Amino acid sequence: MEKPKTGFTDRRVNLDFKKIEEIKGEEKNLSLKIKLINVEKRTTKSDKGENVYHYGLLGDETGTMFFTAWSFNPNVQAGDVLELKNCYTKEFNGTLRLYLDNRSEIILLPEEKMEVKRSFKEAKIKDLSTRDPYVTVQGIISDVRSREYERDGETRKVYFGDIADETGKVRVSSFGRSLPEGTGVKIEGAKVSEYKGRIRISVNEKTKIGEVNVAPPPGRRLYNISDLGSPVGGVSFSGFIISLGEKSGLRLRCSECRKTIEDVRCPDHPSAPFIYDLFAYFTLSDGTGYIQCTSGREALMKLLGMQESDLDPASSSLTKREVYSSIRKELHGKPFILEGDLAEGNNGLSLRVSDISRISRDDVKSFIREMEVEL
Amino acid sequence: MIAPKKREPAKWIFAKELKDCMMIEEKDPDEKGKPYVITPLGTRAKRILITGTVTSKNSEENLTKVAVSDATGTFYVNAFANDFNIEQKNDLDGLETETLVTIMGRINPFRTDDGVYYFNINPEFVARADSTAVDFWNLRTAYVAKRKLYAIREAMKSETPDEDGLSKLGYSREEAEDAMRAKQQYKEYDFQRFQEVAQGVIDSLIKPSSQSTETKKFVLEYVRDNDTDGKGCRYEDVVIAASNQGMEQTEVDEILNALGSDGEIYEVSLKRYKAL
Ligand SMILES: [Zn+2]
Questions:
Q1: Are residues A131 and A202 in the same domain?
Q2: Cα separation, A298 vs A308, whole angstroms
Q3: What topology does CATH give the domain B1-205?
Q4: Given A82, A174, A269, A374, which residue has the most CB atoms within 10 angstroms?
Q5: What share of chain B in percent tops pLDDT 70?
């Protein structure tokens, strides 16, 4: 990469350089000196073939701004300090965004250091998205666990937990710093990422964690299926179950390796006995859309009124057909409230159900009250 | 793991929304199945989910026809005895009038020579329902319809409405598209009337018990006849007597409140009632 002669650049262009806080509206021919905080590549397909663009976050001593680059230098990466010339700003989804196109110039300044002034948008958990990778979230921490790992010959610790607000719940991980169980926290500069189709946040040394008073999360966060776009957890939907997957019902697992066994024996552990497990996949329709759901044994045992002993092959003998029919009889064509965690997959969002409960008269009454508030 | 095909969403609509429909979408010649119907609220539907009461049934060897009524009108459900529908036909044959049902099915439109549309439902599943399921469906269907009506009102107000503008007001993409379709294709429709019908459904759910004259009469007469010590009828006694009639305590509370505000009874002292 060609580095512009120092001195020359400084004298001539500095006059035109703008700081991020000075950009107030849609502007053209902008020159900026910035640090690249985060950059992602995206490929879109159209009739005319594939189109690649980059987007992310950049900042300087005065603030940060999102950008989209229709044309980009593939050699620069997060952390680099750059000079950008001939770019422009435009409003997108209500916020000002910086754009680079094929007339823009990107110059790497390898020697430069820059301290970026970060300001993080406050986000509700249901709105967390990797498109907005650094945010401030508030919520209550629960289920904290930790794990040790080795790095550079040192033993370090990573903490995991859940963080919940009134809109949803996601996994939070923290390297080195413990997470306060059962406490309301404000996390400034949490990094949003997606892992196995689910949103999670992580904190690092630079993230600020402060204790705050947070209202306890509600028992149930009920949504319309059309409301949610992000794969977050701790959400509920109400509707009719309109289809049940044919392979739902009883599963046999190897007691040794826990893998599903198709036949009577595990190919790897032919002498190990099998254990019973329950699984179902079905579709919920709520009038605003539908969502694919999967459910494991806990929720299905409750639905079918089964005890642990009913799933013990030593004391109980079940057939696939029986279990399928009893699940179908309970679920199909009937109204339920399903609670669980959303996950993003090839077919869009799906719900991993943790609780299935039949809609009761009292539920209908509380729906009426909620509706009167909304409409 | 699971790779479901993109399925055709089941729309929740009242019988009135389907009956008032005067438009079907031009079908791509290659497209299989029936065309989409476009309802007055802009709903674009091939498949619907309904609940209601079976009001009539006509079973023949080859075809069973069932009429299912909701609070706003009637759906006509037909199943033929062919390979695809035999299970559904059997399910329809098993229904009696007054049975509550939940049905998902495909809309089968046909047009008379004078240009009037009629719609049958070809069921994909038929399930028995209880009153809670029916109330829940009514409530959500009214909710979905009212949101659409609000979006349509916004679209009508604006000189140059578009989907993006409506989305910014908080409507979903689908609601925005539906509102635009309604504005373009049903300009003369009586949306106000539909609004009243939807509100009527909600109102009937809000005060089901106090509006049922029978239960109200029962409680009133009980209060009148059971003032045993002259200090007023005991609340506990009303609850027990009502529960023998299949009423829940919350329902009794609502009726007592309603009778109070109607001036039929008054509370003499704590939890003691006298009829006027
Ligand atoms: Zn095994």
A1: yes
A2: 10
A3: OB fold (Dihydrolipoamide Acetyltransferase, E2P) (2.40.50)
A4: A174
A5: 96
The whole-number pLDDT of residue B264 equals 86
Domain ranges of chain B: 1-205, 207-276
Residues A288 and A201 in one domain: no
pLDDT level of residue B5 (50, 70, 90 thresholds): low
Q: Are residues A193 and A269 in the same domain?
A: no
- Residues of A at the B interface (Cβ-Cβ below 8 Å)? 224, 226-227, 238-240, 242, 245, 281, 283, 285-290, 292, 294, 332-335, 346-347, 359-361, 363-365, 367-368, 371, 375
Tens digits of residue pLDDT in B50-71: 999 999 999 999 999 999 999 9
User: Is the domain of A229 the same as that of A347?
Assistant: yes
**Given an 8 Å threshold on Cβ–Cβ distance, is B133 in contact with A242?**
no
Distance CA A302, CA A297 (A): 8
DSSP-derived 3-state class of residue B112: coil
What is the ipTM metric for this complex? 0.78
- Indicate whether A217 belongs to any domain: no
Residue A97 resides in a domain: yes
CATH number at residue A244: 2.40.50.140
Q: What average pLDDT does range B8-12 have in this prediction?
A: 96
A134 shares a domain with A56: no
B214: helix, strand or coil: helix
**pTM score, two decimals?**
0.78
- Residue among B4, B135, B250 minimizing CB distance to A347: B4
Structural domain count of chain A: 3
A187 and A91 inside one domain = no
Q: Which residue in A has a C-alpha nearest to residue B146's C-alpha?
A: A375
Give B175's contacts in chain A (Cβ within 8 Å). Answer: 226
Q: What is the pLDDT of residue B208?
A: 54
Interhelix angle for B249-261 vs B235-244, to 10°?
120
- A375–B2 CB contact, under 8 Å: no
Q: Which two tokens stand for residue A159?
A: 């903490």
Which residues, listed in sequence order, are joined to residue A313 by a DSSP beta bridge?
none
Residue A123, both tokens = 């986000």
Domain ends where: A76, A108, A140?
A108
Nearest CA in chain A to B165: A93
Q: Which two tokens stand for residue A273?
A: 């006995």
Per-residue pLDDT at B160 exceeds 90: no
C-alpha separations of A305 from A243, A339, B127, B243, B270 in Å: 21, 18, 22, 27, 42
My answer on whether A284 and A356 are in the same domain is yes
Hey, are the CB atoms on A226 and B172 less than 8 Å from each other? yes
Q: What is the pLDDT of residue B2?
A: 43
CATH class of the domain defined by B207-276: mainly alpha
Determine how β-strand A348-358 pairs with β-strand A249-254: unpaired
Both tokens assigned to B276: 């006027």
Residue A335 with chain B: CB contacts under 8 Å? 132-133, 136-137
Residue A153 lies in domain = 121-211
Nearest residue of chain B to residue A329 (CA atoms): B127
Gap from CA of A249 to ligand 1 centroid (Å): 20
Contact assignment for A292 to B12 by CB distance below 8 Å: no
Chain segment B172-219, per-residue pLDDT in tens: 999 999 999 999 999 999 999 999 999 999 988 886 544 467 788 889
Whether residue A227 sits in one domain with residue A142: no
Enumerate the residues of chain A whose CB falls inside 8 A of the CB of residue B2: 245, 281, 292, 294
Boundary-marking domain end, from A211, A238, A253: A211
Ion ligand 1 neighbours (CB, 5 A) are A 254, 256-257, 266, 268-269
Query: According to the model, what pLDDT value does residue B49 have?
Result: 98
Residues of chain A with pLDDT under 70: 1-15
